[in-house]
Prior knowledge:
- The protein is of the alpha/beta class.
- It has one domain (about 5-290): Rossmann fold (3-Layer(aba) Sandwich), CATH 3.40.50.1820.
- The protein is about 40% helix and about 20% strand.
- Helix 4 packs across helix 11.
- The longest helix is centred in the N-terminal third of the chain and has 15 residues, at about 85-95.
- The chain is globular and about 45 Å long.
- It starts with a helix and ends in a 5-residue tail after the last helix.
- About 45% of the residues are buried.
- This is Alpha/beta fold hydrolase.
- One of its GO terms (biological process) is acylglycerol catabolic process.
- It comes from Nocardia terrae.
- One of its GO terms (molecular function) is monoacylglycerol lipase activity.
- It holds the Pfam family Abhydrolase_1.
Amino acid sequence: MDALQRWRSGGQVIDVTISGTVRRIFVRTVGTGTPLLLLHGYPSSSFEWADIEPYLAPHHMVVSFDFLGFGASEKPARYRYSIIEQADLVETLCTALGLTEVTLVAYDYGAIVATELLARRTRCAVSISRCILLNAGLYADKYRPRLAQRALLIPVLGALLARAFSERVFIRAWNEVFSPEHRLDPDVARLHYRALRENDPDGDIHRKLLRYIPERIAHATRWEDALTRTDVPMSYLWGMADPVSGRAIADELRHRHPEADLVEHADAGHCPHMEIPEHIAADLLRRTIGTPR
């Protein structure tokens, strides 16, 4: 049994109604205590939290899941994915699991979903007691998606490029956003690639999920204002060697929110929770239980 199989063996696939349709969603819950809800990024799945979960579970109920279209969750054919709908999924899933209040820990794609949840705070089905964000394109004009991602969004060219999206291409492209000090393990990357590509009815799930980039631009004012106006305690754990959402986003955070609780990790890239999980776990626990024992 490989690491991905072990991760999934500790969870389950449940039925959740989203936009009036029942969908199969993979969910994993470990530990006891106040709940931490972990929202993963693109192009991976909840499996990206595998190295950090053991540090958190002795102190919290740790809940993670695969967004619709990711990992072991359902990947509907000919589907148009939406951040708005993924936020609906978070609310519905929390209700199904009996979670009324959570600390939200969100990275990349998941952090954009988190900003939508913050924007609908007064009518959100779950109360967010604290929100901790990791590297993400929080400000649309400061985010620098990779050339390949931008190309995949071009209608005809993107469809052609999607056919050439091999495991080798995936590993090379993802490794580019890790820091030089903490390179992506190719064996781990292969498991993430498998999780992304399996059960994809149209063979281009990675392209469909990238719709979050133009969607973020369209909702920039709503989601950026949510960070400014929220009364939820906010923290930011940032890999500064990230070429897509690193220093430029951190600098903008400092500019707009000089008082922000922003932790800068100079030796981490775009995926700090995968690159330096012990340090990120310590950052998280200091903000949820005080200094961990």
